[in-house]
Write a structure and sequence with these properties.
By secondary structure, the chain is an alpha/beta fold. The protein folds into two domains: about 5-260 and about 365-405, Alkaline Phosphatase, subunit A (3-Layer(aba) Sandwich); about 265-350, Gyrase A, domain 2 (2-Layer Sandwich), CATH 3.30.1360. The chain has 13 helices and 21 strands. The protein has helices spanning about 15-20, 30-35, 50-60, 65, 95-100, 140-150, 175-195, 210-215, 220-245, 270-275, 295-305, 320, 390-400, and strands at about 5-10, 40-45, 75, 80, 105, 120, 150, 155, 200-205, 250-255, 260-265, 265-270, 280, 285-290, 310, 325-330, 335, 350, 355, 370-375, 380-385. The strands form six sheets. The protein has an eight-stranded mixed sheet with strand order 6-5-9-1-10-20-2-21, with helices on both faces. Strands 13-14-16-15 form a four-stranded antiparallel sheet, covered by helices on one side. A three-stranded mixed sheet has the order 17-12-18. α8 (about 210-215) packs antiparallel against α9. The longest helix has 23 residues, at about 220-245.
């Protein structure tokens, strides 16, 4: 492989290895890149297999217990709160690149500290992300207005007020259409920056809506096929823009997902099963704050009545490990909090998310795919890789010494 070059890292949220394997014919652009470059058929997830741990493992090369983001929400000693970029305890690819004198742009990628970038656009889908409010994949009106405002040569030339039009976030409608529009605008910004005269050395971005649509419309449904095909089109548009601008040979493109997806039939309602107990659902994974070993055993026995298993806490950072017990739901179940219309109907209910992730550690449905493409990247297939193997491939592309492991050898798992 040739020496260092520029890199565009694209996260496509929620596309499983199984989905890419079975439906590659629906994804012509991603399939073409995979055939021309290096494809990783199956890349495992950190524990749990949810959004922010998955993103953080990709950009640090460390497991959850090391980088510190052991859930979309982490326990701070008092309560669970949304994970933030300043919770990441390991250097990210953005920090290493900037420390090496490279120009870094983050365009909507979560868990990147703005201080580690030269150009920064926050995720459009995460309200008050930097302030650490509750992790919610929903429209941030300010971000959406900014992204979708009409633009001219001099920049923004108008505003577009955004409202959800009274449509609930778990119903089809304006929320989802605006989400797709934001994904499209984010990728166009990436292309604008990459094709500019002062193109960054590293651009990090993500395409969000495939995960959202699968949660609400189901795995391998027509709506989800369309959402993932739209992500494929956005990658194709970026590729064409780079090619037309004569920039394609300057950049390597790394594409991966943060986790997989799997059908969910039943929700275990944690506030009903464990009333008064501080806990945090992470898809099919549940983190519970326990007082002592006897309390943990009591919680374990109660959850076992619903088929949930205790899986330990090795994935939790040492500082809070003793306070956390982690459980996994049985097949096609997940953990949720009851909604206002539950009316005391019992501990099991209809899930809000009819497809989800954060499954039992090692579950194939949570595996994700990865593609590395560009000049100097060999054509081939890697059958399997660990979550932590993706990062050394990124550092190798950028020519950063952090691509070397503790043994002094560049990881050969992917490149």
């Amino acid at each position: 492989m040739q020496g260092k070059r520029k890199l565009i890292l694209i996260l496509i949220d929620g596309v499983s290895a199984d989905y890419f394997e079975r439906h590659s014919q629906r994804l012509p652009y991603l399939t073409s890149l995979a055939r021309s470059g290096t494809r990783v058929r199956r890349m495992s997830c950190p524990v749990p297999g949810t959004s922010l741990p998955g993103r953080t493992s990709m950009i640090t090369g460390k497991p959850s217990q090391v980088h510190g983001v052991f859930g979309n929400h982490i326990f701070d000693g008092t309560t669970f709160r949304a994970s933030r970029p300043d919770d990441v305890a390991s250097p990210t690819i953005a920090r290493l690149a900037r420390a090496a004198g490279l120009k870094v742009a983050c365009i909507g990628h979560a868990m990147v500290d703005p201080e580690d970038t030269d150009i920064y656009e926050a995720p459009w889908w995460l309200r008050d992300f930097i302030d650490g409010s509750r992790f919610t994949k929903s429209l941030n009106p300010d971000a959406v207005s900014r992204l979708l405002a009409p633009r001219g040569r001099a920049g923004y030339v108008g505003t577009m007020p955004v409202s959800n039009g009274g449509i609930a976030e778990d119903e089809p409608g304006l929320q989802h259409l605006l989400g797709f529009a934001c994904d499209q605008q984010i990728m166009r910004q990436v292309a604008d920056i990459a094709c500019s005269d002062a193109a960054p050395d590293l651009i990090l971005t993500e395409i969000e809506m495939p995960d959202v649509i699968q949660h609400f419309f189901g795995y391998e449904t027509e709506a989800s096929h369309w959402a993932i095909a739209t992500a494929d089109l956005l990658v194709g548009e970026l590729h064409h823009r780079l090619e037309r601008a004569g920039k394609l040979d300057e950049y390597a493109i790394a594409i991966a997902s943060d986790h997989g997806h799997s059908q969910i039939d039943t929700a275990i309602l944690t506030d009903v099963v464990l009333p008064g107990v501080l806990c945090e659902p992470e898809g099919a994974t549940l983190h519970v704050v326990v007082n002592n070993d006897a309390h943990r055993k009591e919680i374990t026995a109660r959850l076992a009545e619903f088929g949930a298993d205790y899986i330990g806490n090795d994935h939790v950072p040492e500082g809070v490990r003793a306070s956390i017990a982690t459980y996994v739901a049985p097949h096609r179940h997940s953990f949720e909090v009851s909604r206002t219309d539950h009316n005391g109907a019992g501990a099991l209910g209809k899930p809000r998310y009819i497809s989800s992730h954060g499954l039992r550690p090692g579950a194939p449905a949570d595996d994700r795919f990865a593609i590395l493409y560009g000049a100097g990247i060999a054509q081939g297939v890697v059958e399997s890789a660990a979550a932590e193997d993706f990062f050394p491939a990124l550092t190798t592309i950028l020519g950063l010494s952090a691509g070397k492991g503790e043994d002094g050898l560049v990881s050969a798992r992917i490149l």
